[in-house]
Amino acid sequence: MLSVIGLDVGGANTKAAVVEGDDGLQIVSEPFEVWREPSAMAGVIADVVGRLDRGGAPVAMTTTAELVDAFASKREGVLHVLAAAEEAL
Asked: Which residues of 5-29 are buried (b: 16+ CB within 10 A; e: fewer)?
């Protein structure tokens, strides 16, 4: 069965989860206030997803991190989150 990682990149927390058949649910959450250090986002994403130990599994992502005050516009925030995810994954 194919595992798919769910990733939520929020403004204050980054979370990832995976469900695998009878193995159940595994969740990882890391506090990360994006506005304090936006440049650290790729490392946080890599760490959270890596802790699930599902190397190479596809990732489905949602985000609200683009809305924090660190970005001049929503577009700038979305592009930053996408670049960080691409670098991390």
From this structure: bebbbbbebbbbbbeeeeeeebebe
Distance CA 19, CA 25 (A): 5
The per-residue pLDDT for range 59-69, each reduced to its tens digit, is: 999 999 999 99
- Assigned token pair, 10: 């929020």
Cα–Cα distance measured from residue 79 to residue 27, given in angstroms and rounded to the nearest whole number: 26
pTM above 0.85, yes or no: yes
CATH of the domain at 25: 3.30.420.40
Spatial distance between the Cα atoms of 66 and 75, rounded to a whole number of angstroms: 8
Mean pLDDT of the chain: 93
